[in-house]
Design goal:
The chain is of the alpha+beta class. The protein is built from 13 helices and 14 strands. It folds into two domains: 194 residues, no CATH class; 140 residues, no CATH class.
Amino acid sequence: MRSAVEILKQVFESITANKLRSFLTMFGIAWGVASLLLLIGLGEGFRSGQRRSLATLGTDIIFLNAGTIPALPGQHTGGRPYRLTLSDCLAIRRAPHVRDITALIIRGDLKQTSEFSSFAGGVWGVESNVQKIRTIPLAQGRYFDADDISQHRHVVLLGSKANDLLFMGHPSLGAFMTINGLRFQVVGVAAKSGRGNNNNQNQNLYIPISTMIDNFALVGANQPLDSLSGIDYQPTTEDTNETAKAEVHQIVAGRHGFKPTDLDAFDEWDTIKANRTVGVIFTAMDVFLGGVGVVTLALGAVGIINIMLVTVTERTKEIGLRKALGATHRSILFQFFLEGLMLTGISGVIGIAAAAALMLVLGRVMGNNDMGFDPPRLVPWSAAMALGTLSLCGILAGIYPARKAAMLEPVEALRKE
């Protein structure tokens, strides 16, 4: 035990003997580790932010909107527009790989009035299952049910911002309001969704789709009475999204008189595919940044090897004297190996701590932002990779110089100037 304590004391004295050189070496390693963790943490923040943004819409959704049938394949002008209909939605509901589906009618030109204020947010005609597909968190009251739809009731669910603007702090649940002069009763209020000042979704009002068709149907020349703004559906599983889309294309194309292979006729957004693409991009970024970080740390190891070799050269006489006085090959080897390992180990811990502290500060500064990405965070696998790489660097930086020092013959070492 005494020998080990003595060796540790000698290692510490050796490192502190050249303070500037040791500081610069350790600073380079710590900087490389902190940069690696911070860059990967930023990438993970972007990835997490994108996932949260998609989650505010819903999970595993494919959005299908009205489209235009090209006159010729690949042609983007002179096409024939078509509207999705409620009967299209009913037909798609029978597709084998569609788990759930809901129809939407959206109007932004309807005036809403309460006894306290007036407003002009978006009015959505929805089915009773919309909350299972779209993210519409409930703060108070209830969602629509099948009776509301079948009986064409005049009931409304308010978004959080719409509720604040229309009722201005007064109780709204059970109260009455008008939409374009028609009387509706408030049966529910949605909780705030989204981040920061992004209030678009919070300004919406929701009414039964049957009531919407009765009173506020989409208008246009030769347009069916049950025309929809869009259809949201979910595949049975994430892996069957392409199969579900192919089935939906077949149904819609057959009902509107065009070929399902004419993809330009479909206006759709697959959030599952988008999420995968984002994941691939950020995984590639993480791999690239991780590779750069490993190379940087490897270069740092080369720098430490050089410094240790210089240290061996400077202390040649000391090594010879110690061996002449009985120091073993193993103790010399262990001392120089420990010096290299301590330089990399302490530097790595400082780098990880600095990166974690900076990420914590950035997280508090950014808070609940609406910029589309989350604050950077310390990713466990990147910290583990940094520690593993540093351990390898420490071994490489210590073994070769240590072996060179231990192999010196006492007489030869004492002769050197």
